[in-house]
Amino acid sequence: MSTTTATPVNRLKKDAVGLVGVIFMAVATAAPITAMTGNVPIVISAGNGLGVPAGYLFATAVLTIFSVGYTAMAKHITAAGAFYGYISHGLGQVAGMIAGLLATMAYVVFEASIIGFFAYSAHDTFTSLAGVDIHWLWFAFLGLALNTILAYFDINLTAKVLGVFLVTEILMLGLTATVTLFHGGGPDGLMAETLNPAGAFTVTGMDVGAVGLGLFMCFWSWVGFESTAMYGEESRNPKKIIPIATLVSVVGIGLFYTFVSWMTVAANGAASPKIAAEKFAGIFFDPTEQLIGPWAVTLFKILILTGSFACAMAFHNCAARYLYAMGRENLIPGTARTLGATHPVHGSPHVAGFVQTAISVILVLAFFFAGMDPYVHMYTLLAVLGTLAILVVQTMCSFSVIGYFHLRRKHPETASLWRTLLAPLIGGLAMAYVILLLFQNQEAAAGAASKTALFTAIPWIVVTLALLGLAAALYLRTRHPARYAIIGRIVLEDTTERDTPTPTPEPTR
Question: Given its phi and psi angles, is residue 202 left (phi above 0), alpha (psi -120 to 50 degrees) or beta?
Answer without folding.
Answer: beta
